[in-house]
Amino acid sequence: MIAGVVLAAGEGSRFGGPKQRLLLPDVLEALRASSVDDLIVVAGAYALDVDAIAAKSDTDLNNILSQLPDAAHKYNWTFYRDPVELRLYRRKAREGFLADYVADRSGYVATALPKTKFQDHEFDLALASHILFLYDDLFDYEFHKQSIFELARISKHEVRIYPLTTMSGTRSLLLDQLIHDPDCSSLTFTILKGDFEFFKNANELLIIRKD
Fold it and tell me: Which domains does the chain have, with CATH numbers?
């Protein structure tokens, strides 16, 4: 059996709620359709009760969607045809998440980077989605470094991080700093380019393996 963990956010307080979870439907659907048998999703916001998560996620989603007209030029409208289709997809994702969360919370864990409560090598694969590098203006280099060490600790085989761009659409400068950091010499970094690129230039995946 292959066990995977998706770390979608930190404590959540910086973003006013579980915004990152709303950005993950494509990632989670792909993992659930893959050979991963047991999937755990992590966010600090899962410490909130259901009503609070529902209210905050609704506020967050409305805020995100209200910014789309001014930010539409940052995205490639190929997977989603236009902002209207994206709006429908995101609302459906929110509703699906809330229904699943209410029915069975066992797959959702409230913890946060850079230090989680998982055991060493608890998962075959660890995926950090839409937190590291993307928000490098909020999370400093030391946070990134310690988070990567933590992800390597809880995974047996490899860590995957997506995307590698900042919110400005350029590759985070912290990536090269990490790759060349002597403290990371026991880790192997591989960058793969993919076909999916909704946010412009966000088409690279970082794979980290322990030597």
Answer: 3-210 (3.40.50)
